[in-house]
Design a protein that fits this description.
By secondary structure, this protein is α+β, with helices and mostly antiparallel strands. It has 2 domains: 4-51, no CATH class; 65-145, Aspartate Aminotransferase, domain 1. The chain has 5 helices and 6 strands. The chain has helices at 4-18, 44-51, 53-75, 97-106, 132-145, and strands at 24-26, 34-36, 81-82, 89-93, 112-113, 124-128. The strands form 2 sheets. Strands 3-4-6-5 form a 4-stranded antiparallel β-sheet. It is extended, with a radius of gyration of 22 Å. The relative contact order is 0.11.
Length: 146
């Protein structure tokens, strides 16, 4: 037995090719168009995002600037290797992952200790890019915990 959501998804997939001429273009935050089918697939979250594209673009620009600033600060820390990232997280390898994790935690900064996920991630932490103030506190906590 199919749920209502499964039936809706099947219906939308069946109707989409037939309704291609009805597709309209809506602006997207990065300048690329987003195709919306009137009455279909445009839930409240999507509409909210489209109505606030400027705010999302502002937040994305801040995140990119902070990620770049964090990468530069991490590069100056002895024994720390920050891997390239295009996400809101940065993977770093430190001399002693457990010690750095516990030291940062004791200083009120929580990061993800991911060394146990795979042997290639030995002594690695996942840092989340935050606000300028949060990032300053994270760098200070990491430096003090090395």
């Amino acid at each position: 037995m199919h749920s209502l959501m499964e039936w809706r998804a099947l219906f939308e997939m069946a109707v989409l090719p037939l309704a291609t001429p009805l597709l309209m273009t809506a602006p997207h935050g990065d300048g690329h168009p987003v195709l919306l089918l009137p009455g279909f697939m445009a839930d409240e979250a999507t509409l909210f995002a489209l109505q606030h594209a400027d705010e999302y673009a502002r937040q994305a620009a801040l995140l990119r600037a902070e990620r770049q600033r964090l990468q530069a600060a991490l590069a100056r820390l002895p024994g720390v290797r920050a891997f390239p990232s295009e996400a809101n997280m940065i993977l770093v390898r430190v001399p002693d992952g457990a010690r750095a994790f516990e030291g940062m935690k004791a200083r009120g900064v929580l990061v993800k200790h991911i060394a146990g996920l795979h042997p290639l991630l030995a002594h690695c932490l996942r840092l989340t890019v935050g606000s300028p103030e949060e990032n300053d506190a994270m760098i200070q906590a990491l430096e003090a915990s090395l």
